[in-house]
Design brief:
The protein has helices at residues 91-138, 146-193, 336-347, 417-425; strands at 12-16, 22-29, 31-47, 50-54, 59-64, 78-79, 84-88, 195-197, 202-207, 214-215, 223-228, 233-241, 253-258, 261-273, 278-280, 283-293, 304-321, 370-378, 381-392, 396-400, 409-415. The protein has 440 residues and is α+β, with helices and mostly antiparallel strands. It has 4 domains: 12-38 and 314-425, no CATH class; 40-47 and 230-311, Elongation Factor Tu (Ef-tu), domain 3 (Beta Barrel), CATH 2.40.30.170; 51-89 and 194-228, OB fold (Dihydrolipoamide Acetyltransferase, E2P) (Beta Barrel), CATH 2.40.50; 91-192. It has a 6-stranded antiparallel beta barrel. A hairpin with a 2-residue loop joins β15 and β16. It is rod-shaped.
Length: 440
Amino acid sequence: MLVLGLAGAGAAWYFRSAQGQPIAYRTAEVKRDDLVVSIAATGTVEPEEVIDVGAQVAGQIVSFGKDENGKSIDYGSAVDEGMVLARIDDSLYAADAAQASAQLQVAKAGVARADADLVQAKAKLYQAQRDWERAQKLGPSEALAATSYDAYKSAYETAKSNVAVAVAAIGQAQAAVAQAEAVLKRAQRNLGYCTIRSPVKGIIIDRRVNIGQTVVASLNAPSLFLIAKDLKRMQVWASVNEADIGNIHPGQPVSFTVDAYPDQIFHGEVGKVRLNASMTQNVVTYTVEIITDNSSGKLLPYLTANVNFELDRRSNVLLVPKAALGWSPQPEQVMPGFRKATHESSDSGNPPAEQVVSMKPSGRSGARRHPGIVWILEGNMVRPVKVKTGLSDGALTEVAGDDLQAGQPVVVGELRPAAADNATANPFTPQIRRRSTPNR
């Protein structure tokens, strides 16, 4: 948005009123330029996607990894996916892994022993079965006592039960192996968590731990690093008042500046409007995400941005200060040929220009134009020029008129030198701005 001041265009023209007091006119030139109507807001530059890298195990930070340049990981380091960022003391976790590995070996030995017991039980079953079969052929008789017959039968039944027990023992031993493998896997995973690796390729924008610091992982994982995936695309999170949020929509062009580069204007567009409004001192605001390109790398994370959401634009139009539409002269200040027409225009009941200039446009093109009057300074007197007003950004107003051209001096106010001298002598004396209408 082009901001036009009055300082460079102002000029002082003196006119003596009927009371003999000189009057100084303040003027500004009619400009032909572009007018942008916008909503101002304040925001913060944020990376488009930030990864918070934490720790899943507790322990002391013993070392940092190396970046692409071989330097220790620090603020601004470029990292690749899988690159080591830091290492946590793993002595306790290594001991747990070694213990779990030993338990697994014990469980596997238990399986081997259970297999051997099953073979032994089957052999005994075979022998008991053969003895029982021979006892059945002889039966209780003089050749085989009844007690021996019963003993062979009992031995056979016991051998069958021992085989079943051996089979069950094998299943139990195999389950113990599976349990030991799970414990070992967990211990090895915890041991692996002692090495903090980058989950993505990006830039370290925050390192929150130092060597020797102990991190404690409880219900919430401690944050160690913040990694921005791509600093070439940034976002601006702007807070917009609820009164203006209705004029904001996705795809809307946005311009903004940052204090680091006050003379450079950055451009972007609205990405989304977040629906979770916040209230501060009874003021409701919405967060608007603005997407912008940062190929130059000038925008750094968390810079404060002064944002302007573009509502409407006029190209190559005549512009005058808003004050030019609100000033009206005394009859003796008007050129003689225009005094009667000015008096009749005042009697017609037309609303003064300052009441019809839109201070808050709707943002839609084709806004309604209203009649108004600006006063052109010619010599030491003024003459009226009828204009139609359009958009206004609060400081400048779009005007159109057949008798209005760029470069013409329009009156924006007047200042009596005598009053100015008094005001200079006494800083507490208010400056009174005289405005009046022609006598009827």
